[in-house]
Description:
Blueprint: H1 2-6, H2 12-18, H3 26-53, H4 67-75, H5 81-91, H6 100-110, H7 115-126, H8 134-148, H9 156-169, H10 185-197, H11 202-221, H12 235-241, H13 250-271, H14 284-292
Helix pairs in contact: 2-3, 3-4, 3-13, 4-5, 5-10, 5-13, 6-7, 6-13, 7-13, 9-11
Amino acid sequence: SAAILSMNKDSIFVKKYHEGVKKTQYWEYYYEDALNLLAKLPEIAAFIYRLKYRNGDIIPPDPKLDFGGNFAHMMGIAKPYDEVARMYFILHSDHESGNVSAHTGHLVASALSDIYYAISAMLNGLAGPLHGLANEEVLRWLHGVMEKMGGKVPTEEEMKNFVYETLKTSVIPGYGHAVLRKTDPRYMAQREFCLKHLPNDTLFKYVDLLFKVVPPILLEQGKAKNPWPNVDAQSGVIQWYYGVKEYEFYTVLFGIGRALGVCSNIIWARALGYPIERPKSLTTAMLEEVAFGKK
């Protein structure tokens, strides 16, 4: 967030705005700023990762590689992590505009704040534990389950019993979604990748077992409108398998992908001339009228 904010001085839109550019041309300069920002995001993220977790051994970008391939290269992780990066960024790029990160980016940009301000704000929203930390929390939970089971892969019956016991006092993280009412297609894309590239990984076997036993149990107990897994149920498992084991970095990866979708939506908003966002406020009296009718 801080690194992106520091790039604001290079905003083409800000310069053109102060030169008096026409409103119908705003989108063109948001587009230029977005391209400049997105081109730098993989390098910024990989630089921070290598600086913090790999003794500052920085790997320069390779101009011959694509977005995901270059990120994998700068992270210092061999193939097929380039496929992981491409998949991860696309799957996290956009998921309607009601979530905190996408809405924050749209809101800030609606005031004609430049793309750097908007995406920096987006990342700050993503940092909240109710939003961008879900996959990290699922992975912590999975490791806890493995520890309780002695590190061995349980049978399907043993996993069922564990799920029943867990649901007496808690929930199964990664299952259910505020909007979706079927299995998250982003989960299925990752599942296909795991079945191809890491079918024998112990952690994935836990995820696979949960996929088989949790939805029927939740349906049986009527505990969720959507008993199916969401994107966070296994995204952390893939990162862990390829050596990215620093939980706190997962939200950064989420942010790179989400920036792709948010930048696109901001450009469209400027092209269509959307106004500044200004939600209506309700007084207590108005709420009482909605709830109880006019007195």
